[in-house]
Design brief:
This protein has 719 residues and is an alpha+beta fold. It has 24 helices and 26 strands.
């Protein structure tokens, strides 16, 4: 039995019975129409529905899905890999069966019919042969289409299968009437049967291509090995499934093996390829006491690690889950396509009926029927339903494989439209590891004593400047005293009681910080930081992408200008001495399409305010949670990668929508006026399949272009 807990956090359900993008869109609309569901995203490509509801249990949500004519079951994170693969395999297998059976039965029938017609031989039994042949095909291939259309009709709605089913059944029934009543008019049994087979071939090819476009989650999950070597107390090892590992166990990682679970190095040294998280292919040295990440490749030495999480809660699994949720989310631009799709099928039905009626009144009912059937088939908005989600899947998947985690499709689209990025300085453009350069004590105070007390009050703080002061005191052999009543004031400094004295360390306009002891100025501290080596190149690349770059920092103006000058940022685009409140107000004043990049507690409010916050993975938990995108903590160049892939993905979405709209707008009049001829339904089925493949193929081109572009930027950083 499933838990009766309500879905306060997003739950993933495997959905069965969906055959096209229209099914996913209609199910999502139905779920979102329920006021007790806060969010829902349904994906045909992964066969999942990600639903959030504070009021409904998983069983209740499954019931809602079943009411729409689909099956559903709750999927745990540990089943993610098998679920994605199973869905892709099931979808491709379904369409493969329909395609092979449909074409294998129809093509011989069609060839025989054309051969007899070319020989001008029209025996009476030919019509009945075509009737029974088409009936077999409709019975074998048709049920999938008919069942989907019937389920939609029961929900008082329509979908793409509605048009296919009506087209095939109309052509078949009309031809049957002509055959039974021996009317001297052409029949369309071959067209009725052939269009089911051809549409199935198109969907089969689409399913194969879509699976190729959406391999990112599977690639991520396959980076975590299914088994690992567990070290026993006696020093021997045993191979166990990675999912069975719990926190605190010891694992042996041999050279050339992937690390199965996040952990801490206990023994050995080795160069680790962490490109799964950082996007950098250059290995980094890991020694005892340092952390290693699941999915990373151990390249040289033998390591013994102690796991810090279970095998089902590794970094690579969390990344895969974030990527999958981003892939199933809906971009704002897709709302237009969804709105059009919702009214498109009923509109097409009206056009088809009107077409048949006009031709009938003109005295050519047979041409009217075939024109109406062609309208039904050629108007299927499959490509329109695929245009946005297939591009989003490729874009977010490529980002995830390069260590860039985009939390939803809306963020991806908005960054693609954005023309300005605002960087925090400390820990973002700089390493965030400043060093104490100078201590200027005031009369009556001694440098070592002031530094000792300053380090004591800064010790509990997570700010990079605090760490520099503590390291400086430790480097001089000073004992760090315990602080009482500690308080951190974001954007201002820290305060606390040490040995009966009130100690404050606050930012200052003349130097980096000022130390006050019992409200008396004791010393001024000057700290310096170094610029990240890839920061200047990242800013240059952003400008090449027509993105304006600004700096917003809480540091003093002189320091900020010095850093900005070294990076090529004009002084007029630098705002210094900023508090968390003023940062938030600055971002608010720039509008909702500005991207904010930061890493600290001071940046959290600005990151949340922008709506397009980008957090460095090495930053604070608060900053990461407030952001819509997380990038590798040691790679500011990932911001340029983010803009590049967002712009390319948005461009692909726009191209796909253009192709889909152009196809339908141009094709419907051709069909309605009978310009496609007597074999119009067959040509319509071919054209519909080609439109789907155009959209999916364009997404596959995006995947290859992103792979090439992002690989090029990585090589550029390594040179």
């Amino acid at each position: 039995m499933l838990s009766q807990e309500t879905t306060t956090s997003p739950k993933t359900f495997r959905v069965t019975g969906m055959t096209c993008a229209g099914c996913a869109a209609s199910l999502q609309r139905a779920l979102l129409s329920n006021p007790r569901i806060s969010s829902a995203a349904v994906s045909i490509t992964s066969g999942t529905a990600v639903v959030s509801s504070p009021a409904l249990s998983p069983e209740a949500i499954i019931g809602l899905v079943k009411q729409q004519g689909f099956g559903a079951e709750l999927v745990s994170s540990s089943d993610l890999r098998s679920n994605v693969e199973r869905q892709q395999q099931a979808l491709e297998k379904t369409w493969r069966y329909r395609a092979i059976m449909g074409v294998a039965c129809w093509l011989p029938l069609e060839i025989f019919h054309w051969t007899m017609s070319a020989m001008h031989w029209h025996p009476e039994w030919m019509g009945w042969l075509m009737f029974f042949g088409a009936l077999v095909i409709l019975a074998i291939v048709g049920p999938g289409f008919f069942a989907s259309a019937w389920q939609a009709a029961r929900r008082r709605t329509t979908n793409m299968d509605t048009l296919i089913s009506l087209g095939a059944s109309t052509a078949f029934c009309y031809s049957t009437i002509i055959l039974v009543f021996s009317r001297n008019e052409p029949t369309y049994f071959a067209e009725a049967a052939g269009l089911l087979g051809i549409v199935s071939v198109g969907h089969w090819m689409e399913a194969r291509a879509t699976a190729k476009a959406g391999t990112a989650v599977r690639e991520l999950l396959h980076m975590q090995p299914e088994t690992t070597e567990l070290l026993r107390l006696d020093g021997s090892t045993i191979t166990v499934p990675s999912e069975e590992i719990i926190a605190g166990q010891r694992l042996l990682i041999r050279p050339g093996a992937r690390i199965a679970v996040d952990g801490l190095v206990l023994e050995g040294q080795s160069d680790i390829d962490e490109s799964i998280v950082t996007g950098e292919s250059t290995p980094v040295r890991r020694s005892p006491g340092e952390t290693v990440i699941a999915g990373s490749m151990n390249t040289t030495g033998r390591l013994v690690i102690q796991t810090t999480v279970s095998g089902r809660q590794t970094t690579v699994r969390r990344i895969a889950e974030l990527v999958e949720r981003a892939q199933t989310s809906r971009a704002p631009i897709q709302k237009l396509a969804d709105q059009i799709s919702a009214i498109f099928v009923p509109t097409v039905l009206i056009i088809a009926i009107s077409t048949a009626a006009v031709w009938w009144l003109a005295g050519n009912g047979s041409a009217g029927i075939i024109a109406a059937v062609t309208v039904l088939i050629i108007s299927c908005p499959c490509a329109l339903g695929l245009a946005t989600p297939i591009a989003v899947m490729v874009g977010t998947g490529a980002a995830g494989l390069h260590g860039i985690l985009i939390k939803d499709a809306e963020t991806l689209e908005r960054i693609g439209r954005s023309k300005q990025v605002v960087f925090d300085k400390t820990g973002t453009l700089t390493h965030g590891k400043p060093e104490l350069e100078k201590v200027e004590t005031q009369p009556g105070f001694f440098e070592s004593e002031v530094l000792r007390l300053a380090a004591g009050v800064e010790a509990p703080s997570e700010h990079p400047l605090a760490g520099a002061i503590v390291r400086a005191a430790q480097g001089r052999g000073l004992t760090i005293p315990e602080v009482l009543q500690f308080a951190a004031i974001p954007g201002t400094g820290v305060t606390g009681q040490i040995e009966g004295h009130r100690i404050r360390v606050e930012r200052h306009h003349q130097s980096t910080s000022v130390v006050l002891i019992d409200d008396q100025t004791a010393a001024f501290l000057t700290l310096t930081d170094t610029v990240r080596p890839d920061a200047a190149q990242a800013i240059q690349r952003l400008r090449m992408l027509n993105v304006k770059v600004s700096m917003l920092t809480g540091d003093r103006y002189a320091t900020a200008i010095s850093i900005a000058k070294s990076l090529g940022i004009p002084a007029e685009d630098v705002a210094a001495d900023a508090t968390p409140e003023s940062k938030m107000q600055t971002i608010r004043g720039l509008g909702h399409n500005v991207v904010m990049v930061g890493d600290g507690l001071n940046d959290a409010a600005a990151l949340a305010e922008s709506g397009l916050g980008v957090a460095m993975a090495s930053g604070t938990r608060v900053a990461i949670e407030a952001a819509g995108v997380v990038i590798p903590g040691d790679r500011v160049s990932a911001v340029a990668d983010l803009f590049l892939l967002s712009q390319m993905t948005l461009r692909t979405i726009q191209q796909n929508l253009f192709f889909a709209f152009l196809y339908n707008v141009a094709a419907i009049p051709l069909a309605a006026f009978g310009l496609t001829g007597n074999h119009g339904p067959l040509w319509a089925a071919v054209a519909m399949g080609l439109s789907d493949l155009t959209v999916v193929g364009n997404a596959l081109l995006l995947k290859s272009r992103l792979k090439r572009k992002l690989a090029g930027t990585t090589r550029g950083r390594e040179q």
